[in-house]
Design a protein that fits this description.
Shape of chain B: elongated
Strand order of the largest sheet of chain B: 2-3-1-4
Number of helices of chain B: 10
Mean pLDDT of chain B: 85
Low-confidence stretches of chain B: none
Radius of gyration of chain B: 32 Å
Distance between the termini of chain A: 21 Å
Mean pLDDT of chain A: 91
Largest sheet of chain B: 4 strands, antiparallel
Oligomer: heterodimer
Helix content of chain A: 25-40%
Helix content of chain B: over 70%
Number of helices of chain A: 7
Low-confidence stretches of chain A: none
Number of strands of chain A: 10
Order of helices and strands of chain B: HHEHEHHEHEHHHH
Radius of gyration of chain A: 17 Å
Number of strands of chain B: 4
C-alpha cells in the first residue's frame, strides 16, 4: 500500500529531514510513527499525501510514485487519503456539519446522500449533537474528532494522523485512539505519528522510530 | 446532472458571498456600472445622430442653375440627358417661376418679391446622384458644370461630409473609451478577486489537502467575477436608461424650438444583451487573470 525506498528529503537551505528511509506498510495495517519533534515524522506523512516530494528515492502510494506524480493526479490521490492534522485545519466560517461536508462537495456528491454520510461520520466521532455548532465553539478534543470526521467521511483507504493526541489529556487521547482502532478493524490502513507513550502502551502496533531523519 | 448541480451550488454560494458584504459589493458594482455607462452613453449619442443623418436626407444633391438665356427646348434636352445619365438616380426640375412662388410663400418676403421688376431666379435642376463618395460626386459635378446651358453646378454635400467626419471621430472616441474602461473593469475584478483569494486562503489550502481539483477551487472565484461584471452591466443599463429618460424630457423642448422631433434612442434589446454578455465576460476575464496569478501561490505545507 505504501512503500518507501531509500528516500531522502532535503529542504532548501540544506536541512536534511529524511535520510535513506526505506520501509513498507501493507494494506489494512496500523503503524505508529515515533520520534522526537523534528525527527522527520511530519515530513514523512507529507510525502505520503504528496504535499511534498522526495528529493531522492521513491515513495509509492497505491502504486503511484509521488516523486513523479502529475499535478493533475494529486486530487484523486488525496481523495483516497484521510488527513488528520494536529492543528485540525477546520474552517471557522461554517458549521461543523459543513466542515465535514466539504470533502463530499469536492467529489460532487448528491446533497441528500452527502448529508446522510456526514451524519454517519459525526455520529461515529460522537459529535452528532453538535452538527450546527461553529468549530470555534468546540473543545480541543471535539475539534480533533471533527477533523477525524472530515477525514473519514469520504471513506478513504488510507488514514494519516499527525500527532492526533498531541494536545489532549489521556482520557481524550484514548477516546480518539479507540476511534482509530475501529477504523483499523474495518480494514483501513493507518499511519499515526505520536510520541505519547501511554497511547503506544495501550494500543500496541508496529512502530517506525525516526531519529534525526533516519529510521532506527 | 451532477455538473449542473455543482454549478448551481457555486452560484448560490456566490450570491451568498455578495449578500454577505452588501456595502462592498454594491460599491464595486456601482463603479463598474459607471465605468461602462460612459461608452454606452457615447454609443447612444452616436446612434441617435446617425438616425438624424438619415432623416435629413442621406444623399447629397447637385443643384444645376441654368443660364437665363437657355431656351425651353434646350432645357428639355438637358433634362432628358440627365435622366439617362447612369450616375444619376433622379432629377427634379424647378422652373424659375415655381421657385419664386415657393420663395414667396415660405419666407414671408412677399412684399419684397412683389416689388421686383423681374424674376431674379434661374431655372434649376436638382440632381440626386447614386453615389455618396465625395470624389465621385466632385467628378460628376465637374462633368455637369461643363454641360450646355449650365451656368453653375453646386455640390451640396459639405454638411454631410462634416457630419460624417464628426461621426467617425465620435466612433473612434467611443471605441477608445470602451477599450480603456473595459480594461478598468478587468482590473477592478482582478483586484476584488485577489483580495478574496487572500481572505479565503485557509479554505483553499484545506480544500487542496482533501483532494479538490484546480477547477473546483477556481470556480467560485470565476463565478464571482462574472456575476459582479453582469450586475455592473445591469447597473450601467439602469444608469444610461435613467439618464436618457431625463435628457429626452428636456430634449423634447429643445427640439420643438428647432421644429424637430430629435430624441436620444434607447438601447435596443440586442444592444442591451450585448452589454450584459460583454460585462459578464469582462468580469470573468478579470477573475481568470487573478486566479491564474494568485492561486498557484497557495500550496498546502
Amino acid at each position: 500500500m505504501i512503500q518507501f525506498n531509500q528516500v531522502y528529503k532535503r529542504y532548501p537551505g540544506g536541512h536534511e529531514a529524511l535520510k535513506d528511509v526505506s520501509f513498507g506498510i501493507a494494506e489494512g495495517e496500523m503503524v505508529y510513527l515515533t520520534g522526537h519533534s523534528g525527527a522527520g515524522k511530519s515530513t514523512l506523512l507529507k510525502l505520503i499525501a504528496a504535499i511534498e516530494r522526495p528529493t531522492n528515492g521513491s515513495v509509492l502510494v497505491k502504486g503511484q510514485n509521488i516523486r513523479a506524480i502529475k499535478r493533475e493526479a494529486i486530487p484523486a490521490l488525496r481523495r483516497n487519503i484521510g488527513l488528520i492534522f494536529q492543528d485540525h485545519k477546520l474552517l471557522f466560517d461554517r458549521s461543523a456539519f459543513d466542515n465535514v461536508l466539504l470533502p463530499l462537495q469536492i467529489c460532487g456528491f448528491d446533497p441528500r446522500a452527502a448529508a446522510k454520510r456526514v451524519h454517519a461520520a459525526l455520529d461515529k466521532v460522537g459529535l452528532l449533537a453538535r452538527e450546527k455548532a461553529n468549530p470555534i465553539a468546540l473543545s480541543g478534543g471535539e475539534q480533533q474528532r471533527l477533523c477525524i470526521a472530515r477525514a473519514i467521511v469520504n471513506r478513504p483507504t488510507i488514514l494519516l494522523a499527525d500527532e492526533p493526541t498531541g494536545n489532549l489529556d489521556a482520557e481524550y487521547a484514548h477516546e480518539i485512539m479507540a476511534i482509530f482502532q475501529s477504523f483499523h478493524q474495518v480494514g483501513a490502513t493507518l499511519v499515526i505519528s505520536t510520541h505519547d507513550e501511554g497511547v503506544l502502551a495501550k494500543f500496541p502496533a508496529r512502530a517506525l522510530h525516526l531519529k534525526q531523519g533516519e529510521l532506527q | 446532472m451532477n455538473a449542473l448541480r455543482e454549478h448551481l451550488r457555486v452560484l448560490r454560494g456566490t450570491l451568498q458571498r455578495l449578500r454577505l458584504t452588501p456595502g462592498a459589493s454594491l460599491f464595486s458594482i456601482l463603479v463598474i456600472g459607471i465605468a461602462l455607462s460612459l461608452p454606452v452613453g457615447g454609443y447612444i449619442l452616436l446612434q441617435s445622430m446617425q438616425t438624424l443623418d438619415a432623416r435629413l436626407g442621406a444623399k447629397p444633391q447637385i443643384s444645376l442653375y441654368l443660364a437665363s438665356s437657355t431656351s425651353p427646348a434646350e432645357i428639355g434636352k438637358l433634362g432628358d440627358k440627365l435622366r439617362r445619365h447612369e450616375a444619376i438616380e433622379t432629377v427634379e426640375f424647378i422652373a424659375r417661376d415655381a421657385a419664386l412662388k415657393q420663395l414667396r410663400q415660405s419666407t414671408g418676403m412677399a412684399d419684397v418679391i412683389d416689388g421686383l421688376a423681374q424674376n431674379p431666379l434661374p431655372d434649376a435642376f436638382i440632381v440626386h446622384p447614386k453615389s455618396r463618395d465625395p470624389a465621385t460626386l466632385e467628378a460628376l459635378r465637374n462633368e455637369l458644370q461643363a454641360g450646355a446651358g449650365v451656368e453653375n453646378a453646386k455640390l451640396d454635400s459639405d454638411w454631410l461630409r462634416k457630419l460624417e467626419a464628426i461621426l467617425d471621430f465620435g466612433r473612434l472616441a467611443v471605441a477608445l473609451l470602451a477599450a480603456l474602461l473595459s480594461f478598468a473593469l478587468v482590473a477592478i475584478t482582478f483586484n476584488t478577486i485577489r483580495l478574496q483569494i487572500l481572505t479565503r486562503r485557509q479554505e483553499i489550502e484545506v480544500a487542496k489537502l482533501i483532494g479538490a481539483t484546480d477547477a473546483f477551487i477556481r470556480r467560485p472565484f470565476l463565478y464571482f467575477g462574472m456575476l459582479q461584471g453582469l450586475l455592473g452591466g445591469v447597473g450601467a443599463w439602469l444608469l444610461v436608461s435613467g439618464m436618457l429618460y431625463a435628457l429626452n424630457a428636456s430634449l423634447v423642448e429643445l427640439a420643438s424650438l428647432y421644429a424637430s422631433s430629435f430624441a436620444l434612442q434607447p438601447l435596443t434589446p440586442a444592444d442591451s444583451l450585448t452589454l450584459l454578455v460583454f460585462s459578464a465576460y469582462l468580469g470573468w476575464l478579470g477573475a481568470w487573470f487573478s486566479v491564474a496569478q494568485h492561486l498557484w501561490q497557495i500550496e498546502p505545507r
